[in-house]
Amino acid sequence: MSADGPELQHPNFSLNLKSSDVSEESGEDAKEGFEQEVNTMLSLLQSELILDVPQSLKFYDMAERILDKFHISFTGSLSLKADVEDRLAATSSLGQNKLWSSTNLYQQLLLLEGHVPRTAETSPRAWIEAFLFRASAMLPSDKRMVLIPVTTVSPSSSTTLSGLVDYAAVVASPQTARTLLDDTQVHNLRLCMPTGFFVIEANLSILSHDVPQAVCRMYYCGRLLQKKVVRGALTNGHDWVFVHIKLNDNYDGASYTWFPVVRLNIVKSYDGVPQIRKPWPDVIAAILLHWVENGFSDLGSDDWYEMMRIS
Fold this sequence. Notes:
alpha/beta, nine-stranded mixed β-sheet, 38% helix, 21% strand, Fungal-type protein kinase domain-containing protein
């Protein structure tokens, strides 16, 4: 990996669940039932890139039923802590001499806004990767980010599920990073992956309607990798929903929390030139940095978020 950005793994990486990959504690019947439900959900997603509002509501309801069936419950919302300005002062200057500095992130985003049309057919990956590359440049010199892009969603048999997430981001020592670059099979990820953060591209026109299916996928990642906590983001490149999931001790069920939206605020001048409002790109990049570094850990005192419990 260069000092300026993460290593990119081969794009044919996929998360594959074999019958031996999940602990027997969770039960074969429950495992297969969950696989079949998620396969159905992903099949619907594959039919159209962006679903309209009526379809979005139907899909949301279906994903919610899957969550209920497999004991995955919403336990409260996240809120940004009050010291955001102090945190930004400490993080925005990180990596300022690297290619993906804060200044260059803004320039890259402006370039995208001015040259890439945003339509239903436009992939948000250029925007997503800009933020992930910025987060990688903020790491200390003894850490490396391995960014593993995933091919398009394609459901398969009841024992193998490919394309579960769109990106997996890992922060590790240089030696472990090299190991992960050479082998991204599930058994190696489980053994060598010190952190993990999962990015899922939004498929629905209303981002909040997409949260239940993102939770399903992230929960599946946790079961697959046998992690009790997983973190990830659902995004269309501009709007980011950060999701935190805690799996039950036997991996049978989970609880999740999420922060509604952190938005890349784009405005246009009178002559149509895009402008990016500060500080939101820096906020998104800084949250990504912390969440990738702590992807398998519970929320701590140094986190950007805190819980707002349901009354």
